[in-house]
Specification:
single chain, mainly alpha, 8% strand, binds S-adenosylmethionine
Amino acid sequence: MSGDEGSGGVESGSVGVGDGSAMEAEFDTLAAWTEDAVRELGPRYAIPAACRGSGSPADLRWLADGLGLHGDDRFLDAGAGLGGPAAWLQVHLGVRWQARPLVTDPMPHAVAAARRLFDQPAFAAGPRSCP
Ligand SMILES: C[S@@+](CC[C@H](N)C(=O)[O-])C[C@H]1O[C@@H](n2cnc3c(N)ncnc32)[C@H](O)[C@@H]1O
């Protein structure tokens, strides 16, 4: 399977992190494969599969407590990958925090997966292109 299969026509090429082919392999191609795997396995695997670095529930709970999100607080995850941690926050803080997270990542397949898996507002942006 190549990174372009199952990617829904997403253009390859990261935003603002140099030519970074190793980074693209790890964070862009693997993002597309992860989305494909979730489609095969089912939606209950989406959040665990899309947490690619901060995947421990204890760590996510610690982060959630530290953020102290309430009501319609705005939340931007920069370097969000496939949006798994932001989706975890939505599920676990759903009573006290109802806003939608905004997620960005330099890798186009990662942000496309965040949109498709979690319906998150997501855009490709790197350190030099974030508005
Ligand atoms: C280990 S993954 C973690 C993704 C996500 N935060 C998570 O916990 O699942 C690191 C992410 O940071 C992104 N990234 C790398 N360099 C970045 C930069 N300079 N600015 C913003 N994001 C960057 C990568 O594309 C990758 O998706």
